[in-house]
Amino acid sequence: MAFTQIDFHGIHVQGPEGFTAAVLRMPGTNRILPIWIHPEEASEIEARISGFQPKRPASHDLLADALMRLTSGCQSVRINSNFEGVYIAALVTNDGEEIDARPSDAFILSRILELPIEIDDDVFMQASIFLSDADLAHYFGISSGVVGNGIDDRISASGDAQADADFEELMQSMGVFETDLLGENEASGGEGDNDDGESPGHRKR
């Protein structure tokens, strides 16, 4: 396996159902990978990003402390695989051991322990989507910084037919269809899975 460090672009709420996803992006490219996260975990990730520190150790703080005390320390978190929409993550210790984890827990621990996030190259290329500069900026607030490829803008809405197709797939996975954007029909439920293997429309009780 070959792993590449990836940029974490926070939690984003999309679609009529308010699905929450952690957005990962390959540095210097327009390719992103959304991983569906339960709202509870998404809220904690957002809190950690904003600098929240609990007065007393929360469960993830306790786990982080135990990892640092009882192992050789951690060097990174990884996204190792993807099976039918379920992503498998791991914490990598300094001596090369991997500890199985959900992506949501791995993302929280990466904030607490200030660890880089890595992803298997094959997993990213198979599951990621390509978005145009305009869609990256509009929907995710991401500036690509990638020089355009010179494609005639008249070919498609964004200037890149593949970007349009990938973006349509992303929006449909969140239950958003072209007719919704035109105000003609309501969207049906999303099809994508979160890091527990459940559809985004299924909420924990």
UniProtKB/TrEMBL annotation:
Region feature Disordered, mapped onto this chain: 181-205
Gene3D superfamilies, sorted: Bifunctional nuclease domain
One matching Pfam family: BFN_dom
InterPro entries membership: BFN_sf, Bi_nuclease_dom
GO molecular function: nuclease activity
Residues of the BFN domain: 3-131
Protein name from the UniProt record: BFN domain-containing protein
Species, as recorded: Corynebacterium durum F0235
